[in-house]
Amino acid sequence: MKFMKLGSKPDALQADGNCIRYVSSELATDVTVNVGDVTFHLHKFPLLSKSNRLQKLVSKANEENSDDIYLDDFPGGPKAFEICAKFCYGITVTLNAYNVVAARCAAEYLEMTEDVDRGNLVLKIEVFLNSSIFRCWKDSIIVLQTSKSLLPWSEDLKIIGRCTDSIASKTSVDPAYITWSYTYNRKLSEPDKIVEDKMTFLEKIESVPKDWWVEDICELDIDLYKRVMVTVKSMGRMDGVVIGEALQTYAFRWIPDSVDTLVYGANASRTKSVVETIVCLLPYDNSIGCSCSFLLKLLRVAILVCANESSKKELMKSISLKLHEACVKDLLIPARSPQTTTYDVHLVQGLLNQYMNDEKGRCGMDVVEDKHGEDEYILARRSLLNVGKLVDGYLGEIAHDPNLGLSSFADLSQSIPDFARPDHDGLYRAIDTYLKEHPELTKAERKKLCGLMDVRKLTAEASMHAAQNECLPLRVVVQVLFFDQVRSSISFQPLGHNSMYDPSRSPMNRDEGCKKTMGDNCQPLKNQMSHLRIKDEELHKNGKLGKKNSKNSKSGLQLLPSRSRRIFDKLWSLRKVQGENRSSETSGSSSSPTSLGHGDTKSYGLSLRHQRHSIS
């Protein structure tokens, strides 16, 4: 820390208790100066030789036959006046970053300028500020922080402005030329650790990160911090990533982790100011440098402290631009009154709608022909896939909420395009959870809920679980079993003598293969199966038929629940009538339901096609 000593005489200013100061001298004091609650007994001559204002006040007091002078609004208080008084007496006084602003304001108040005496206090302090303080990184920050308590004097004397410019200019210096000390306690990222391990001791000393300045300015109050960051951004030399890192570091420094402290503590108003300031300082280029997780946490705090609507809207806009980077945990923002749900589903719906609008506007949801446009489309599609996983994960969490309405669940699940869900396993898990947590759903509501899911996009594991799920409607169970067997028949279908690669068998075209197989092989059963209506009551009546065929179908259906086995028993009995036709349509299949070869799997799977349309 830089310092400057003024004067050479020993300290003759004595204290008598906490409220009285006097100069130990053979000469009696002839003037009394009252600064706040402290009284100074001094001599007129040394004071009047340096201060133009004291000359005026003493002259006025003499006219009133008084020796008392009152300085109630003195900047810096008794300590600052003591520095000025010692300077007038030539007593040694030390100026540093902690007291120089108070001394400068006090000297300005007392009009200790060159017009009164050469080499006066104002000039000496200005030289010290310009030659030492503003050239030192940490001293500039200390001076800026102490200047807040001395407003408006520090502002009028341009101390705040000069400190801000000094700090901002140093942040843009090439790190290779940083020679002063700074604070850096954050953990290095993994790549930085690898590089650091390979560096020599000298290289480690000379290596300075780009965000070396971030932690030191975190000690500033929010209004001063804002001024520094505005100046840094206005210079246009700072990378948006570093600015984002600075904002995150300041937020973690001053925003409490406890919700009770945020809402009910004495720092609630300060936290609100911090949030609103950080939002207005976010980088212009899509909030680069600020992670989506950080922005969502900031939004949560903004809601808790009732930040202004413009800040919330700006945050939502920034979040929507990088929603594909979010995780489910960050989206679980508690709902506020009058909402009855556990989490703020409407807020997430708004973020998702804004994200989709941005994606449509940016890419048009169409493939662009040129190479650059194609790359952008691929990146946009990948982002949408991430959002699809995010939405399904979020649905799985909020499905536990008993107050979540079906319409909110459905709207959220339908907010993304079909290709954003390559498979529907995540959506199925969310639907399964919702059915278990909401047993009061009507038959129509259950049908609507399950209609959100495409059973053709379930994986084998999810299909097996769905086939045994007692919560699903019978129609959905049959659809799951049918498409699972159709996919199996396509996968194991023997190749002909022209065994060439068929694109329809690839995973990308599996649904198209299912449709083709159904169209080629299901026509002979269409008329008979279209009249079959299966209900729960009919299944119980056909219990004997189920028992009769259970032994034959045991090997393929033993893992299914009794309801699913009864459905298959019904279909096997019908197959006996159509045995010959099916054998001709499914190459190599057996007419006996006791053997489930490749052909049989395809045959009874195809028969379920019509059953799926007949179950209500």
From TrEMBL:
<dbReference type="InterPro" id="IPR027356">
    <property type="entry name" value="NPH3_dom"/>
</dbReference>
<feature type="region of interest" description="Disordered">
    <location>
        <begin position="578"/>
        <end position="616"/>
    </location>
</feature>
<keyword id="KW-0833">Ubl conjugation pathway</keyword>
<protein>
    <recommendedName>
        <fullName>NPH3 domain-containing protein</fullName>
    </recommendedName>
</protein>
<feature type="compositionally biased region" description="Basic and acidic residues">
    <location>
        <begin position="508"/>
        <end position="518"/>
    </location>
</feature>
<dbReference type="InterPro" id="IPR043454">
    <property type="entry name" value="NPH3/RPT2-like"/>
</dbReference>
<feature type="compositionally biased region" description="Low complexity">
    <location>
        <begin position="584"/>
        <end position="595"/>
    </location>
</feature>
<feature type="domain" description="NPH3">
    <location>
        <begin position="211"/>
        <end position="487"/>
    </location>
</feature>
<dbReference type="GO" id="GO:0012505">
    <property type="term" value="C:endomembrane system"/>
</dbReference>
<dbReference type="GO" id="GO:0016567">
    <property type="term" value="P:protein ubiquitination"/>
</dbReference>
<dbReference type="Pfam" id="PF03000">
    <property type="entry name" value="NPH3"/>
</dbReference>
<dbReference type="Pfam" id="PF00651">
    <property type="entry name" value="BTB"/>
</dbReference>
<dbReference type="InterPro" id="IPR011333">
    <property type="entry name" value="SKP1/BTB/POZ_sf"/>
</dbReference>
<feature type="domain" description="BTB">
    <location>
        <begin position="29"/>
        <end position="97"/>
    </location>
</feature>
<comment type="similarity">
    <text>Belongs to the NPH3 family.</text>
</comment>
<feature type="region of interest" description="Disordered">
    <location>
        <begin position="497"/>
        <end position="524"/>
    </location>
</feature>
<comment type="pathway">
    <text>Protein modification; protein ubiquitination.</text>
</comment>
<dbReference type="InterPro" id="IPR000210">
    <property type="entry name" value="BTB/POZ_dom"/>
</dbReference>
